[in-house]
Amino acid sequence: MNRFLNIQPSPSALVQSLRDIGYSMESAIADIIDNSITAEAKNIYINFAWNDEKPWIAVIDDGIGMNAAELTDAMRLGSRNPLEVRSSRDLGRFGLGLKTASFSQCRQLSLISRKDDILSGREWDLDLIEEDSDNGWRLRVIDDSEMRQDKYIRDLLSLLPESGTIVLLRKLDRYDGLEKKLNSLIEQTRTHLELVFHRFLSPRRGGKKINIFLNNGPLYAFNPFNPNHPATRELPEQTIHVDGQSVFVQPYILPHYNKTSREEYQRYSGAGEYLQNQGFYVYRNRRLI
Q1: Which residues contact 134 (CB under 8 A, 6 or more apart)?
Q2: What span, in angstroms and rounded, lies between the C-alpha atoms of 169 and 189?
Q3: Which of 206, 220, 222 is nearest to 269 (CA)?
Q4: pTM to 2 decimal places
């Protein structure tokens, strides 16, 4: 007869491993925004503050929101099986993105959502998990009265429409304690998001437009192929068939440097210059991977 032992992973050890998967600030925020897009948000707000050396970052959307049960499931690690058939609009895959992206930057993740005019809140605090790891994965419930008393959540609730979600990252511990450093990372995040989500920020005719704001300032699409320049060459689209699926390839040749201004050339050459940036740009559901 087979004997089995039910071995639960150590919460503190596993979470610490998940924190070091390799996210940067910009890739973490982009993964959080993926959830907002999947939730059919039209407007996404990224707010941050230095807050006297206690910085925080929040992502607020006007998507469909979640009820209490959905919120609990969203905070579960591995909440979705990657083998499940997904909607063609779903940008997630493993049910880990929200949690691992957030944990990579902070030790306290609060998730607040409004659906059917009902507010629900859940919170992971890694300090509490590490203090009493033997009690397992203790997800804290944030009730309505606490949301109203928590200064940060209360202020962010004023931005939440009839339905939507707030992702609040606190206890940010991956910085060197300098406000200048955080501001630099946020600026890198702006540039990254304008590239990664450019097909949402400025969609083709008939496409769904999404507005993204960083501390109330709008983000503007950055299309790496510079298609509006008269010297850009758009070659015929090609189709590659892989495992019964079709992958569409649209080639572009960017303008020679003597046909652009110095500023435009530098902007589109990026940090790696033109030659290093050439290659395949892979999109999934209009999102640059």
Answers
A1: none
A2: 15
A3: 222
A4: 0.87
